[in-house]
Hints:
Elements: E1 17-20, E2 23-29, H1 39-44, E3 49-54, H2 56-65, E4 73-76, H3 78-108, H4 113-120, H5 144-157, H6 163-166, H7 168-185, E5 190-194, H8 209-219, E6 223-227, H9 229-234, H10 241-246, H11 249-252, H12 259-264, E7 268-271, H13 276-285, E8 290-293, H14 299-302, E9 307-310
Parallel strand pairs: 3-4, 5-6, 5-7, 7-8, 8-9
Antiparallel strand pairs: 1-2, 2-3
Helix pairs in contact: 3-4, 7-8
Amino acid sequence: MPGTVDNVVRPxxxxxxxxxxxxxxxxxxxxxxxxxxTAIHDFYHPPFTVIGACGDRAAERVAAMYSSVKAPVERxxxxxxxLIKYASNAFHALxxxxxxxxxxxxxxxxxxxxxxxxIFCKDTKLNISPYYLRPGFAFGGSCxxxxxxxxxxxxxxxxxxxxxxxTVLETNRRQVDLAFNLIRKTGKxxxxxxxxxxxxxxxxxxxxxxxxxxxxxxxxxxxxxIYDAEVALAKLVGAxxxxxxxxxxxxSSLMVPSPKEVIQSSDVIxxxxxxxxxxxxxxxxxxxxxxxxxxxxxxxxxxxxSNYQGICW
Length: 313
């Protein structure tokens, strides 16, 4: 039935079907996205209309109510529709707290916080965009961890508390722990890892969360095989050559020439990078393997696998 999501998320079985003349039209959920001070304007100018339905007839009835509203209609399941509402409001709360913490730091440094955020919001490629908003593995690399630590260090010098930003690195670390626990729960000792650098398209190993994960697995006695085409090249030339030789030679020695070899020598496959070569190997050689996906491979790459799970999907 059309309605709003004002309380805790309710189990699907508690939803009521829409009935008319004794006919069951199915279950429907239609969360609203209207602000208290601008509700009428928001109703007629929404970013989208969400209809969660279990049954086409109910969805069609609710969609008809919005026929005069010029906005996309997103049809999905009941529970997805409900959680979209909560995710939206949680993100809005997060944005307020983020802006306030940057504002508090700005004031402590004698900087105009409104000018900082005004320019910040002009970046619609990364800052105000879908970028970074796909559930998956932890972040790493040379920029995000370093700059976050720099902000927190400066705040400490100014005797400022930034509690939200202060929890980001711990939240990130726990995503690595989550991947580790998923692997441990399989009870398998032979683990293959497809991807070593902190993200696709680079050989950069600085603060790579997959390196941290591999170190933990080695420490618990797992036998590993690793493939990463970009890092393999960096072993011969490039900025990471010294790092590979001096900091992680024990990991470097576990690398093999192809993703097929990783799959063949392992019982559990951890996918932390995407490439046509990796997709092809997973699709054609992993039917009897356990796959733990950290990056959300295309469905056609994993459809042959009988035991697949994503880190948070």
